């Protein structure tokens, strides 16, 4: 199984990027996970959507080729960050690369609620007609107080979180059998 992770933070020391890297290494034998970089994606503009920049075409091609998308995002001002919304706008247009493609959401934040509001909004967005992505039901991963759960090497060290994510990934693999 080939998956892509779309991380809603472009900062170097991002907890969400660390979470994506944790998934990449811990489940390397279960699936291949490529972490996509949102930094090169320019602002969406409807005037150029039919002649989109190469960075956008490359990004969309990777999403299109993946069996599923893992959305791993912080919460900004009680919703999803602008960089993520921007990438979603590109994905929702022209060839609509998310149509029918399965999704799973995770998120890490320094707050106690661990991105609950951002994930609620992202869930709604995934059901918009330009995306129309089936979402893994029930398994919700909120990594709150993220600054206490990773060590200086960027490794996820909170055992309860590691074990909980093991369970979610097992559920995700089972659910993915409907789509492979
Ligand atoms: C513009 C901005 C808005 C934020 N809004 C929220 C918020 O609404 N809820 C929350 O839990 N944390 C919020 N935070 C704090 C983030 O949880 C924290 O910066 C986190 O480390 C971001 O994720 P990252 O480490 O992957 O970049 C905000 C941070 C920024 C920079």
From TrEMBL:
GO molecular function: FMN binding; oxidoreductase activity
One of the record's GO cellular component terms: cytosol
InterPro entries xrefs: Flavoprotein-like_sf (IPR029039), FMN_Rdtase-like_dom (IPR005025), NAD(P)H-dep_reductase (IPR050712)
Pfam family, one: FMN_red
Bilayer-crossing regions: none
Ranges of residues in domain NADPH-dependent FMN reductase-like: 1-147
PANTHER family the record matches: CHROMATE REDUCTASE (PTHR30543), NAD(P)H-DEPENDENT FMN REDUCTASE LOT6 (PTHR30543:SF21)
Sequence similarity: Belongs to the azoreductase type 2 family.
Name assigned to this protein: Chromate reductase
Organism: Psychrobacillus psychrotolerans
Lineage per the UniProt record: Bacteria, Bacillati, Bacillota, Bacilli, Bacillales
């Amino acid at each position: 199984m080939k998956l892509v992770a779309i991380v809603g933070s472009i900062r170097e020391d991002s907890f969400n990027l660390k979470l994506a890297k944790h998934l990449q290494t811990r489940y390397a034998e279960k699936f291949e996970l490529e972490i996509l970089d949102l930094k090169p994606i320019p602002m969406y503009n409807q005037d150029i959507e039919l002649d989109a920049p190469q960075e956008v075409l490359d990004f969309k091609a990777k999403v299109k080729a993946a069996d599923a998308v893992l959305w791993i995002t912080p919460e900004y001002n009680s919703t999803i960050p602008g960089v993520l919304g921007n990438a979603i706008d590109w994905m929702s247009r022209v060839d609509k690369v998310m149509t029918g493609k399965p999704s799973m959401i995770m998120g890490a934040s320094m707050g106690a609620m661990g991105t609950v509001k951002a994930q609620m909004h992202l869930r709604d967005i995934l059901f918009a007609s330009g995306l129309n992505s089936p979402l893994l039901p029930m398994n919700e991963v909120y990594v709150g107080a993220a600054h206490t759960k990773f060590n200086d090497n960027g490794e996820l060290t909170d055992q309860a979180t590691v074990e909980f994510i093991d369970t979610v990934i097992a559920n995700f693999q089972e659910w993915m059998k409907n789509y492979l």
